[in-house]
Amino acid sequence: MSSNSVLPPVQIGPVAKALAPMALGSFIFGADAWRPEAQAQLNATMQAALDHGITHFDTATGYGAGQSEELIGNFLQGKRAQVFLASKASIDEMDADLMYRHVQASLDRLRTDTIDLYYIHWPRQGKDIRPMMEGLERARREGKIGAIGVSNFSVENMEQVREVGPIHAHQMAYNLFWRFAENEIIPYCVANDIAVVTYSSIAQGVLTGKFGRDPQLPPGDNRGRVVHFDDDVWPHVYAGVEALKPLADEVDRPLAHLAIRWV
To answer: Per CATH, which fold does 3-200 belong to?
Structure first.
C-alpha cells in the first residue's frame, strides 16, 4: 500500500512539490560500518521507498562525513524529479560565505543543481547565528535551494534567524517518549506557518519493541549515547514499551506502525 493512499500529500514552503508525509532518513548511510557493497543495498532501500510513495529523502553533510549525500546522489541519477530532497549543515565559525559553500558542496555530492529544502542543522548557542541564515538566503535567491529549514532550534534561535529571512520548516526529535517540543516549539511553528518535520519517530528503534529488559547494543553503536538506554532510564522506557504492545496487538499492527502513525 502506498503511503499516499493512507495520508494526504503535503507541501513545504514555496517548493511546488507535493510529497508524502513520510520521509526516508539517511543517518546511517555511509556510517562507520560503510562497505563498498552498501551502495547496492541502499539503492534497494531507496527504490523501495519510492515504490511505496515515499518521495521525501532527508540527509545531511554530517551523515557519514558526506558519504550519505554521495550515496543518495548516485541513486538519484535519472530519478531526481521524483524526489523532494532535503539536506542540512552547520558551521562553528559564523560566516555566511562558509555556509553558502556548504550548500555548494552538498550540491556537488548529491549531483544535482538544486536542493528542495536545506536546514541549519544545529544552532550554536551563545553565538549570533544569523550569518548561517544569510548564507542560505543567498543560496535560495540563486535557486540553489528551494526552501530553508532549521533543526533542533529553540524558539529564541528561530526568532534570531527569522530576522534575516523566513523559516519554512523545523526538523525536531519527536516521538511517543520525546514530547518536549509540544511545550513551545510546535506551537510556535504552527503560529508562524513553519512546517513541522520530525525525526526519531521510533526512538532509535526502541518503539519497535525489539529490545528486552537488558538491551544489548553492538560495540560502537551510536544509540549507546542516547538517554533512552541509560541504566537509570531504561527500566521506565521498557515498561512504557511493554504497556504499548497490547494496543498494537489489538489492531494487528507492528508497534513501529503505531508509533509512526501517532506522530
So the answer is: TIM Barrel (3.20.20)
CA–CA separation, 65 and 123 (whole Å): 19
In whole angstroms, give the CA distance from residue 132 to residue 151.
Answer: 13
Assigned C-alpha cell, 244: 504499548
- From 63, 100, 118, 238, the catalytic residue: 63
Alpha carbon distances (Å) from 40 to 32, 44, 62, 78, 112: 17, 6, 21, 16, 20
Query: For the chain, what's the residue count?
Result: 263
Residue 101: phi, psi to the nearest 5? -65, -30
pTM: 0.91
Q: Is 119 labeled as catalytic in the residue annotation?
A: no
Question: Does 68 score more than 50 pLDDT?
Answer: yes
Strands 195-199 and 115-120, how do they pair? unpaired
**Tens digits of residue pLDDT in 2-33:** 444 467 888 898 998 888 889 999 988 876 55
Burial class (CB in 10 A: 0-12, 13-18, 19+), 191: exposed
Strand order in the sheet with 23-25: 23-25, 56-58, 84-89, 115-120, 145-151, 169-173, 195-199
Percent of the chain with pLDDT over 70: 95
